[in-house]
Amino acid sequence: MENKPLPPHVFIFPLPYQGPMNSMFNLAELLCLEGLHITFLVTEYIHSRLLTSTDIQSRFNSYPGFQLRSVSDGLPDDHPRSGEKFVEVFDSLELKTKPLLKHMLLTSSGGLRRPVTCIIADGILGFTCDVAKEIGIPIIYFRTLSPCCLWVFFCLPKLIDAGELSLDQSDNMDRLVKNVPGTESFLRRRDLPRFGTFGDLADKTLQLSKKEGQENPRALGLILNTFEELDGPILSHIRTFCPNLYTIGPLHAHLKAKLSPQTTSLESSSSSLWNEDWSCMTWLDSQPSKSVIYVSFGSIATLTKAQLIEFWYGLVNTGFKFLWVIRPDIVAGKDWESQISQDLSEGTKQRGYIVGWVPQKEVLAHPAVGGFLTHSGWNSTLESICGGVPMICWPYFLDQQVNSRFVSEVWKLGLDMKDSCDRVVVENMVKELMEVRREEFSHRAEEMAQVAKRCLSDGGSSFCNLHRLVRDIEDMMIQD
């Protein structure tokens, strides 16, 4: 009997941050379900955190074709690797990790695994394309940020030439932006990504993002975590740069739709870098339908003590129940805890539940949650859309600025609170979302959740695009 040929071997390399990794782990599991072999590469720093906060290996135990490997990011153990240090992480990956990656790719076959058929790398890691072309392996990029922000990045050369990024704090930040086609009627200067100091065109993050319009088309295709029905107009513009798009999102919901109810328990399937506190689910079980405002600013955003106190007063003063994620590192230092007044403490005891981290997808799917005060990270935005939960957006940096504007003005799924951190504004926005315009926002959010669900069903746009991606990877193996 003839031996069955080995399946394609896909090598996945995410940007080493929580959001991009979540998306790529979901993609890896989807490809495992399609019978592909996967090598998933993380940095040693990330690997250590995964082992501390979750048993990631248990998630993939049922997939013999999956292996998790680690590589040095070239930074010292005590490097913070947080938001403002992003460029240092990127520079070190390009300088120190690139040669290690090349060696790993050249020696990745053996036993029951064929040589690498295809690389799927985060599209901001341009050096991965250099390595792929040097050794002759096809590469597909995956951009885990929002398409609307990616399109702004592609337009950065025009924005710079037109002087629309030469800003200072005295400029009219509500002036409409003219050089991002398709957004001329609603995108304001204040909605553009924040690159370091206002007006600093030499900012390294800005220059890195500017390269994406030239970098991303180098790959054979571009995977996006969205669905055609949500981002269709923007996707048509992106296709002028990258014609071969695979829109296969929302990935977390796509994976859930593929898995059987008998699959591993929810708690063991997490890839969170923080320990999840599941006690919040019991607390939610005791709350009435759509009565709780859920608050989380993601895994990177930080607050000042003053901002924390303003949010706290605003939430307590609404009179609504609230579930709030306050990460251990969300405020520098610990002395802020001693500054919580008696009235805040009492108000929280009556109406609030505060934890260090939560299983967010499950929280947003809980019937007690009626609104989400969010930093507008793309994963959080998609999880809120799939949960049918309207949003109040308080963006922190990069794509979050653009996302929040699309939530309020394009998709009509909530309110944009950017550039404001005042207890009265917080209180009024929560009341508007949860009370004054509750029916309007709830109806729109539930409608969009149904659209997202349909795109994942047999014949839906994301369902078909995933199968096209798998078929294209299999064709690479045949051509090998």
UniProtKB/TrEMBL annotation:
GO terms for molecular function: UDP-glucosyltransferase activity. Its EC number is 2.4.1.-. InterPro entries: UDP_glucos_trans, UDP_glycos_trans_CS. GO terms for biological process: (-)-secologanin biosynthetic process. Keywords: Glycosyltransferase, Transferase. It comes from the Eukaryota. Pfam families: UDPGT. The keyword GTP-binding does not apply. The keyword Transferase applies. PANTHER family: GLUCOSYL/GLUCURONOSYL TRANSFERASES, GLYCOSYLTRANSFERASE. Belongs to the UDP-glycosyltransferase family. This is Glycosyltransferase.
